[in-house]
Design brief:
This protein is of the alpha/beta class. The protein is built from 14 helices and 15 strands. It has a domain of about 110 residues: Cobalamin-binding domain (Rossmann fold), CATH 3.40.50.280.
């Protein structure tokens, strides 16, 4: 069909401007759909926010991220339905797939697309629609684990790519894997060796992984730490989702990573808070990480069916009507833990004793980040 026009929309999610093209928020699904429909000869436009297109679209495809950002999806659907009343508006993505009935009723879209678009998923993303200097790859889909706080195993059918398949897709010197359990791939050794040896434009490949590495697999196969370093994974994150008393396991993972050359600036511990372990328990874990001199990548828990989040770190006495607060936590504890983690990371990053910390170091850290962003 000639002159068929499709508008791809990323709603105005509450993402900081400096993070708009960050690897965690790039609308990779829309970019793959763009390539897929271009092959059919359709006209494509990507709107990252709510504004008019350069054409009147036949279809409008709106992506969704977290369920708790559903109101932003609704805003986009209503905006574009009002702007283009003759166009069909469809919603896909995480929220749409986890809560399709809610999505249809709440956003009043014309159609909800559940799951992955298998044909589009095989396409190379249309990176010309965004300004990035990296490439996103999937070495696997789904996950071998079924963690209660994660919905990936519900959203994606498990599958793995070979080292050869991944190599054939490399088209950048900066590769970011969107795998949710990268080390679980049965060909992980071959993949890491391939990445270490592969060149693009006669230059080596540098890698990162959006998600954390499974420390349990690292413990079973300690040689993977060496291979990760050999494959030039710049930062390593491992998740401490179990209780404090098993901390020797986490310490062992850190030791394995340090033995191959990772340090306090390149090792992070993922920790989920506002969850099943109460504040005092999480503080013990944080203090242990400080003892080990490693930074923390913290994640505030929201249930998979949570449809709103008006958390405000500067506002006191918020309640469950504002955002999800676990029954064993309080608003004060949620915000206090977040502040402690921020102080924790700055102290480690700048080698500051905990008792010597002051607000001026947060300002210094912010200025450093701004300077780094401007020079990038």
């Amino acid at each position: 069909m000639t002159n068929y026009k499709i508008l791809l929309v990323e709603p105005e999610f509450p993402i900081a401007a400096k993070s708009k093209n960050h690897s965690q928020f790039l609308p990779i699904g829309l970019l793959k759909l763009a390539s897929y429909y271009r092959k059919k000869g359709y006209d494509i436009q990507l709107n990252r926010g709510n504004y008019s297109a350069s054409f009147i679209p036949n279809r409008i495809l709106v992506t969704s991220l977290f369920t708790y950002w559903s109101e932003h999806v609704k805003d986009s659907v209503q905006y574009y339905k009002s702007l283009y009343p003759g166009s069909k508006v469809e919603v896909g993505g995480i929220y749409a797939s986890l809560m399709p009935d809610h999505c249809k009723k709440y956003t009043k879209c014309d159609k909800v697309f559940v799951g992955q678009h298998q044909s589009a998923d095989k396409c190379k993303p249309a990176y010309d629609l965004v300004d990035v200097d990296y490439q996103i790859l999937h070495g696997m889909r789904g996950c071998t684990r079924k963690c209660s706080f994660c919905g990936i195993w519900k959203l994606e059918k498990k599958g793995f790519k070979s080292a050869r398949q991944i190599k054939n897709e490399i088209a950048s010197n900066n590769v970011i894997f969107y795998d949710n359990n990268f080390l679980a791939n049965p060909q992980i050794e071959e993949i890491l060796e391939m990445l270490a040896e592969t060149r693009f434009n006669d230059k080596v490949i540098h890698c990162d992984c959006q998600s954390g590495f499974d420390g349990r697999i690292l413990e079973e196969k300690p040689h993977l730490a060496f291979l990760l370093k050999k494959a030039r994974f710049s930062t390593v994150r491992v998740a401490w989702d179990f209780d404090y008393h098993k901390f020797p396991k986490v310490k062992n993972w850190i030791d394995l990573l340090r033995e191959v050359g990772y340090n306090d600036r390149t090792i992070f511990i993922f920790m989920i808070y506002n969850w099943d372990f109460h504040f005092s328990h999480m503080e013990l874990k944080r203090q242990k990480c400080f003892e080990w001199n490693v930074q923390i990548a913290d994640c505030r828990y929201r249930p998979l069916n949570s449809t709103y989040d008006h958390y405000n770190g500067n506002k006191k006495d918020q309640s469950n009507e504002d955002y999800f607060i676990h029954e064993d936590w309080t608003d004060f504890e949620v915000k206090h833990f977040r502040r402690s983690v921020r102080q924790h990371n700055i102290c480690i990053r700048y080698k500051i004793p905990w008792k010597s910390y002051s607000r001026k170091y947060e300002i210094q850290n912010a200025r450093h980040k701004i300077k780094k962003d401007l020079s990038a």
